[in-house]
Amino acid sequence: AQKVTQAQTEISVVEKEDVTLDCVYETRDTTYYLFWYKQPPSGELVFLIRRNSFDEQNEISGRYSWNFQKSTSSFNFTITASQVVDSAVYFCALSEGYNNNDMRFGAGTRLTVKP
Amino acid sequence: EAGVAQSPRYKIIEKRQSVAFWCNPISGHATLYWYQQILGQGPKLLIQFQNNGVVDDSQLPKDRFSAERLKGVDSTLKIQPAKLEDSAVYLCASHRGAAVGTYEQYFGPGTRLTVT
Known about the structure:
Chain A is an all-beta fold and 115 residues long. Chain A has strands at 3-5, 10-14, 19-21, 24-26, 32-39, 46-52, 59-61, 64-69, 74-79, 88-96, 104-105, 109-114.
């Protein structure tokens, strides 16, 4: 069964610090997709990134970067030079197979960025 | 482009009462999902529609929950009768494809249900 673990329940940093959110997943499938979503206080989940299991290249988007390592079953998310607006709950999610729509979410990491 | 719309945003009911939530996905999105998010947890899929047909409802508590998507556009999720453990945020999401791995899901703001 697929499973996603976000061991960090809450993280608090000061503005401009870098922060890494950890995500470890379990799956028996060779084809799967990994996602990160941001949930600000408004409650709406915002898509950040999707990565398939055959693409291990790391990705950078502005201050955001993602490190996908199949060897350790991890898909970690780093925010560089954090800002107060980054404060939110961040979810990592996993979907197995190409046509499987059961996206399993981790429990989330609450990030607080203090000014 | 308008986002996923949900109503109401908040609802408080007593246990054993009934409640219904409404979702209007992004125009043209064939696939619609309902998720339940209990406080402190990640969202859990309840049901998935593709157009007006059910693709996956394996995690929907069918003894009390029901959902429909008539005409393949907006959708309604109903709980009857509600239990205390149904207190959660109910999220609706949609995407334009058939497989979640192909397209990103767009989420609505959710309906926060409190059962007392």
